[in-house]
Specification:
Number of domains: 2
Structural class: alpha+beta
Number of helices: 9
Largest sheet: 4 strands, mixed
CATH architecture of the largest domain: Up-down Bundle
Shape: elongated
Length: 301
């Protein structure tokens, strides 16, 4: 799972490095603020890719005495940092550059540079987006893509989709800005395009921050995992009753499960201990993302 996520990230980093260089060259020759903003956007996306890889690596560390549930939430922290960078350096800078361009408007020169770079960028970013979506769909084959992104507990799986979607949208806006500026001699079009690109990045950043904030604060397992837990408990004839399973994600692949169970009254202590061990193993086998299971025996009133 993590390996597939990394493939999408490596693909995005490679595409963003090549595209950033092309955009800055085009911005230098044409003076386009929208193209310059897009270059900064690609630089930010490149840095974000490395931060995601760093977070994944840090999150793989084994648990120790100071972090008994492991370091899986490192992935959530660095994904949240990515959202802040998109907001500040991506969206914020693009809007600033757009406002500056509107205050000092100029008609774009040598538009052929912009058109060539934008065409190549759409090709690279589109390819990266397709790779990211396919990788995500392999892990989430059923249901709506957007809804699965909201339900996902692994930011590395959907951050690249969000970034590449914003990048493709930004490229289309930049193209329209260049086209309107050249063909209609509307000198404010380029600056307006830069501002719109900034707004798109702000929306993506806010969405990503919202999702990762929820994970950092602690989210329960998905309904699918909870249904499996309840099915396991319902099928055990030695269990008379149980409380609603308490779960929490401590990383994309690390779920803590706490269960309160009422066993049948004539169950011996040794039998109960063996039953708890067997139940814990069954849960981990049928729910691979569950890393810790704590079972508390409750006496029926």
């Amino acid at each position: 799972m993590k390996h597939k996520s990394n493939i999408a990230i490596y693909g995005a980093i490679t595409a963003n490095v090549l595209i950033a260089i092309s955009k800055f060259i085009a911005a230098f020759f044409t003076g386009s603020s929208a193209m310059f903003a897009e270059g900064i956007h690609s630089i930010v996306d490149t840095g974000n890719g490395f931060l995601l890889l760093f977070g994944i690596k840090k999150g793989k560390r084994a648990s120790d005495k100071t972090h008994v549930f492991g370091y899986g939430m490192e992935t959530y922290f660095w994904s949240f940092i990515v959202s802040l960078l998109i907001f500040a350096f991506g969206g914020g800078f693009a809007i600033y550059e757009g406002v500056h361009s509107i205050q000092n408007p100029e008609i774009i020169k040598e538009p052929i540079w912009n058109y060539c770079v934008l065409g190549a960028a759409v090709l690279f970013e589109g390819s990266s987006l397709i790779i990211a979506i396919r990788s995500f769909k392999k892990l989430n084959p059923k249901g709506n893509l957007f809804k699965n992104m909201i339900k996902s507990k692994d930011p590395a799986n959907f951050v690249i989709i969000l970034e590449d979607s914003a990048a493709v949208t930004g490229l289309i806006i930049a193209f329209l800005g260049v086209f309107i500026s050249i063909h209609f001699q509307y000198e404010y079009a380029d600056g307006a395009a830069s501002i719109l690109i900034g707004v798109v990045l702000l929306v993506v950043a806010i969405f990503l921050a919202r999702e990762t904030k929820g994970l950092l604060l602690g989210e329960s397992a998905t309904p699918e995992v909870l249904n499996k837990l309840e099915a396991i408990l319902d099928s055990d004839h030695d269990i008379l009753d149980y409380g609603y399973p308490k779960t929490n994600h401590f990383g994309p692949d690390a779920i803590l499960v706490i269960l309160e169970i009422v066993f049948r009254e004539n169950l011996l202590l040794e039998e109960a201990e063996n039953k708890i061990a067997a139940l814990s193993n069954e849960i981990k086998e049928k729910c691979p993302k569950v890393s810790q299971v704590y079972i508390q025996i409750i006496r029926k009133a």
